């Protein structure tokens, strides 16, 4: 073999052996995050609920996790929800505050929105107006130097949105415009939904509208997601009637080009470098405020043609960020949600089932019934039992000792043993296999969990 061929073979081996970008995963508490995740040059950030109902803004890079700031919620007087965007200056947040009255949420007139920039040192800078209506999420461009957020409250003149230059000395407004919902920024372009009718792409450096296209589908006023990249190209999800579909448009071709992605009940999307990151699901759930909420689904990456590839499963479909190389997601772990950063070329992790957790040992009462208390640890806000089965092994077969279905989804149940089951239970000295179909109250999601345990016989 010649020297050139040997060097070529060595180079191929080095390229093949080069490891892909390592995946990162961080615990996000026992409940769904209050906001995020958001990628930036500094790492990945998210808002995590505290035990008192307040929140903590966290930033992770590698194994190091730091808390940028906390907001306590003494006496649980407020409910918080945050929308985040990453920046090289810190974390940009749109924060919703709702005052509680008698333990319930009183949205009007006690609903307040505010935009803030939390720098890596913990300093907080207020951006724009503090409003009692409107929920335009923040957006930053690829390098995090520019951002768009509210300048005045919706319904007020002269402007409703502002393009900001983020700098160490402070944020300055460089352009105000009458934007709409789903406002996004990249390079010299801002894209937004003009009142559920059109998608507008604006050159913020000149204030000139670059192009506009009608939102396709029979229900253009329905909520949807969109994103813009630095050359003015947009990708968006739209309502086709029964499902959501994805399309793109550009300044040179300002009309909808369908992407060959399967129709789903919801899509969240990000567009960077002609690559579309998506999180999708076939299940629609409703959040605590009555809006379309999180559901478990899958996330992946596609080019402008489709159909793309799946990178992660069991992720929250309303939590997604993408920088062209990495996806930031919220994954449903067995012991609670986790913030995950996955490379866009990674294969999806092999599916695994979570063990069933019991709040206390199973006991047999005086009437011979089995009392089972299920733990909701690892699920988001609460859970219930839709179906429960207790079985014992007889030879190589599992024999059902007791089973039941429930419509009210309780967490503590009592099951009556089947005829002849008491003898088998005693012979097995209480050793059983418990399987339960659990319903996640917040995600409208069900999953089957199993465990082996021992019944405390009477």
- Name the average pLDDT: 80
From the 3D structure, determine the CATH topology of the largest domain: Methylamine Dehydrogenase, Chain H
What is the number of helical segments per DSSP (H or I, 4+ residues)?
Answer: 2
Range of helix content: under 10%
User: Can you tell me the overall shape?
Assistant: elongated
Based on secondary structure, the structural category is mainly beta
Q: How much β-strand is present in the residues?
A: over 45%
CATH architecture of the largest domain: 7 Propeller
- Note the gap between the termini: 79 Å
- What low-confidence regions span 5 or more consecutive residues with pLDDT below 50? 5-21, 285-293
Number of domains: 2
CATH superfamily of the largest domain: Peptidase/esterase 'gauge' domain
Radius of gyration equals: 26 Å
Biggest sheet: strands side by side, in what order?
1-28-27-26-25-24-23
| Beta strands, count | 35
Q: How would you characterize the largest beta sheet?
A: 7 strands, antiparallel
CATH class of the largest domain: Mainly Beta
Question: Summarize this, please?
Answer:
This protein is mainly beta. Helices cover 5% and strands 51% of the residues.
Notes on the protein architecture:
The protein starts with a helix and ends with a strand. The chain has 2 domains: 24-343, 7 Propeller (Methylamine Dehydrogenase, Chain H); 363-454. 5% of the residues lie in helices and 51% in strands. It is mainly beta and 458 residues long. Strands 1-28-27-26-25-24-23 form a 7-stranded antiparallel β-sheet, with no helix packed on it. Strands 6, 7, 8, 9 and 10 form a 5-stranded antiparallel β-sheet that branches. It is elongated. It contains 2 helices and 35 strands. The chain has helices at 3-17, 421-427, and strands at residues 24-27, 35-40, 43-49, 55-61, 64-71, 78-87, 90-101, 104-105, 111-119, 124-131, 139-140, 146-150, 161-165, 172-177, 181-186, 189-194, 198-203, 208-214, 226-228, 234-239, 244-249, 257-258, 266-272, 275-281, 296-302, 309-322, 326-333, 336-343, 363-364, 370-373, 383-394, 397-405, 412-415, 431-440, 445-454. Residues 5-21 and 285-293 have low confidence and may be disordered. Strand 34 and strand 35 (445-454) form a beta hairpin.
């Amino acid at each position: 073999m010649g020297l050139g061929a040997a060097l070529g073979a060595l180079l191929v081996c080095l390229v093949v052996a080069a490891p892909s970008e390592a995946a990162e995963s961080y615990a996000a508490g026992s409940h769904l995050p209050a906001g995020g995740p958001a990628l930036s040059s500094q790492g990945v950030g998210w808002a995590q609920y505290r035990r008192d109902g307040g929140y903590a803004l966290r930033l992770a890079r590698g194994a190091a996790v730091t808390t940028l700031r906390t907001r306590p919620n003494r006496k649980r007087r407020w409910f918080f929800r945050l929308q985040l965007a990453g920046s090289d200056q810190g974390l940009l947040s749109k924060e919703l505050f709702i005052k509680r009255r008698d333990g319930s949420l009183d949205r009007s007139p006690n609903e307040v929105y505010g935009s803030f920039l939390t720098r890596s040192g913990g300093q907080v800078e207020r951006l724009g107006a503090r409003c009692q209506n409107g929920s335009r999420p923040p957006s930053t461009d690829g390098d995090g130097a520019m951002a768009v957020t509210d300048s005045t409250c919706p319904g007020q003149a002269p402007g409703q949105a502002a393009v900001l230059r983020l700098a160490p000395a402070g944020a300055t407004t460089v352009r105000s415009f009458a934007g709409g919902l789903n406002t996004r920024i990249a390079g010299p372009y801002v894209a937004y939904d003009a009142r559920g009718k059109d998608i507008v792409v604006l050159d913020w450096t000149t204030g000139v509208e670059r192009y506009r296209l009608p939102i396709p589908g029979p229900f253009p006023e329905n909520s949807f997601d969109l994103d813009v990249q630095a050359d003015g190209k947009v990708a968006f999800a739209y309502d086709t009637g029964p499902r959501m579909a994805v399309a793109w448009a550009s300044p040179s071709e300002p009309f909808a080009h369908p992407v060959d992605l399967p129709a789903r009940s919801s899509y969240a999307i990000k567009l960077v470098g002609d690559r579309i990151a998506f999180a999708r699901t076939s299940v629609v759930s409703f959040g605590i405020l009555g809006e379309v909420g999180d559901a478990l689904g899958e996330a992946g990456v596609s080019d402008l043609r489709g159909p793309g590839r799946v990178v992660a499963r069991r992720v929250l479909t309303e939590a997604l960020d993408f920088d062209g190389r990495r996806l930031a997601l919220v994954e449903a772990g067995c012991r609670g949600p986790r913030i995950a950063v996955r490379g866009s070329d990674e294969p999806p992790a092999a599916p695994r089932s979570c063990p069933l957790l019991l709040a206390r040992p199973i006991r047999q009462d005086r009437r011979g019934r089995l009392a089972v208390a299920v733990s909701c640890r690892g699920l988001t806000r609460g859970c219930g039992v839709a179906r429960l089965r207790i079985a014992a092994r007889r030879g190589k077969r599992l024999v059902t000792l007791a089973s039941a279905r429930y419509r009210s989804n309780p967490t503590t149940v009592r099951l009556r043993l089947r005829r002849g089951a008491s003898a088998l239970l005693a012979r097995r000295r209480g050793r059983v296999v418990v399987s339960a179909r659990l319903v996640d109250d917040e995600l409208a999601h069900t999953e089957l969990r199993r465990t082996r345990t021992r019944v405390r016989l009477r």
